[in-house]
Amino acid sequence: MPKILLIIGSASDVSKLKDCFEFLEKAKIEFEVSILSAHRVPDELALFVKSAEKKGFEAIIAAAGLAAHLPGVCASYTNLPVIGLPLTSGVSGGMDALLSIVQMPPGVVVATVGINNSKNAAILACKILAVKYPHLRRLLKKFSAENSKSILEKNLEIKRKGWKDFLKDEKK
After folding, report:
1. In angstroms, rounded to a whole number, what is the distance separating the alpha carbons of residues 81 and 101?
2. What is the value of pTM for the model shown?
3. What is the CATH number of the domain that holds 80?
4. How buried is 29 (Cβ within 10 angstroms: 0-12 exposed, 13-18 middle, 19+ buried)?
């Protein structure tokens, strides 16, 4: 069974990962959530990440706001794939976190998704693990088909109603 480690830099950010948790549960991926800060508990974080592979984890999602060093620090301690999830906090709307995560030095690789886009972090983790797990390939294929169907239905709806009525109904 696939197993993912989610590390969140602050307890105040846990609610921002709700879509991630729900997608991983839907995908039947085992996951563990930990609150560990790269700045406030660096020794504990290092030990935890270094032991992740031995504990059977196959990927890490690291979510952080502000300076967002968490994903890069995680990547420096493991060869598991690390997905950085920048979160909003402070005054810059999450841009500081995004830039901190994407600007890794050569050799320290962190995949990155959009600000607060925890569902995409879960989907990317599934895509990485789908190389090994056929049930995840099937799930992703079904998810993609559902996404396509949804947008095509919205396309028909706007053509049928016109943009004004479409917007009125969308606001309800």
Report:
1. 14
2. 0.92
3. 3.40.50.1970
4. buried
